[in-house]
Amino acid sequence: MSQTPNYKEAFEELQQIVADIEEGDISVDDLSEKVKRAAALIKICKKKLSSTEADVNAILKELDQAE
């Protein structure tokens, strides 16, 4: 994947990697690469969640100040 996936795409790919590992569908040779990819996907998801949380908090703060 050449461009950074959005949250939904990253989460779905992460779920697939986990399912493949749980089902034993990943060879030992591929496991390291899948774990590295999973770590990258987790970083993408965490970054998006943190960004969204900051946006929501900023909006809530603005609403509180408007009262």
Question: Can I get a quick summary?
Answer:
The protein contains two helices and no strands.
Structural notes for this entry:
This protein is an all-alpha fold and 67 residues long. It has one domain. The protein is built from two helices and no strands. The chain has helices spanning 7-23, 28-66. Helix 1 (7-23) runs antiparallel to helix 2. The chain is rod-shaped. It starts with 6 loop residues before the first helix and ends with a helix. The mean pLDDT is 92.
Return residue spans where pLDDT drops below 50 for at least 5 consecutive residues.
none
Count of extended strands: 0
Query: Number of helical segments?
Result: 2
Report on the biggest sheet.
Answer: none
Q: Could you tell me the mean pLDDT?
A: 92
Distance between the termini: 46 Å
User: What's the gyration radius in Å?
Assistant: 17 Å
Strand content: under 5%
The helix content, as a percent range, equals over 70%
Globally, the shape reads: rod-shaped
The domain tally reads 1
Find the structural class using helix and strand composition. mainly alpha
Element pattern in H and E: HH
